[in-house]
Amino acid sequence: WRREWEMAEPDEQARSGMQSDLSQMDAIINQLLDYAKPSDSLRFDKVNISELLKQVIQEYSRVNYLHLHSAIATDMYISGNATELRRLFSNLIENSCRYGKNPDKLNTVVEIQCSHKTKGKKQGVLISFRDYGEGAPSDDDIGRLLKPFTRADVSRSQANGSGLGLAIVDRIVRRHRGRLRIYNHEHKGYVAVMIFPEMKFK
């Protein structure tokens, strides 16, 4: 019996693999719960979107293969739910980690900008995320990725996920009366741009 137990004892690599699988399952379950959450249960408050973005960037700065470059205007406010907005930004960064790795497949670079948009019809708080991965084969594929349970080409990215990451992003943006556009950069990589109504104070 002891010999059978010893043979069944997983080695370090197997334990690490099981831990990774459990973490991934936990993330997928959380995304399913987020997507199913009714919008009428959300509480909206005054949110300093500049500070919230900086907090999320600080949290992800601990990931050694992830390089975040940011330019964030200070003290911009929107009416929103801080938990939802944190999920929005986290999903965009995690999407880049899965599908937006650099051509060397070892590192991920994400550029994050937040600024005032004062020209044109769509004015407000403008936020953009850009990575340097392969991007999507076509614009049709990008539109498809905003639908629930749709994933990028796993054979290209070697990544797994729930297929809800960008669908949750799209839903959160719409819940906050914002607009979202995702497109391929001309020099490869995804660009996600969103604009939210800004809260102004007299």
Tell me what the structure shows:
With 202 residues, the chain is α+β, with helices and mostly antiparallel strands. The chain has helices spanning 2-8, 12-36, 49-60, 82-99, 139-145, 154-157, 165-175; strands spanning 45-48, 66-72, 77-80, 108-117, 124-131, 179-184, 190-196. A five-stranded mixed beta sheet has the order 2-4-5-7-6. A two-stranded antiparallel ribbon has the order 1-3. Strand 4 and strand 5 (124-131) form a beta hairpin. Helix 3 (49-60) packs across helix 4 and helix 4 (82-99) packs antiparallel against helix 7. The longest helix has 25 residues, at 12-36. It starts with a helix and ends in a 6-residue tail after the last strand. The model is unreliable at 153-162 (pLDDT under 50).
Secondary structure layout plus pairing:
Blueprint: H1 2-8, H2 12-36, E1 45-48, H3 49-60, E2 66-72, E3 77-80, H4 82-99, E4 108-117, E5 124-131, H5 139-145, H6 154-157, H7 165-175, E6 179-184, E7 190-196
Parallel strand pairs: 2-4
Antiparallel strand pairs: 1-3, 4-5, 5-7, 6-7
Helix pairs in contact: 3-4, 4-7
Radius of gyration: 19 Å
Q: Indicate the mean pLDDT.
A: 78
Strand ordering within the main sheet = 2-4-5-7-6
Sequence stretches where pLDDT stays below 50 over 5 or more residues = 153-162
Q: How does the overall form come out from the CA principal axes?
A: globular
Helical fraction: 40-55%
Could you give a short account of the major beta sheet?
5 strands, mixed
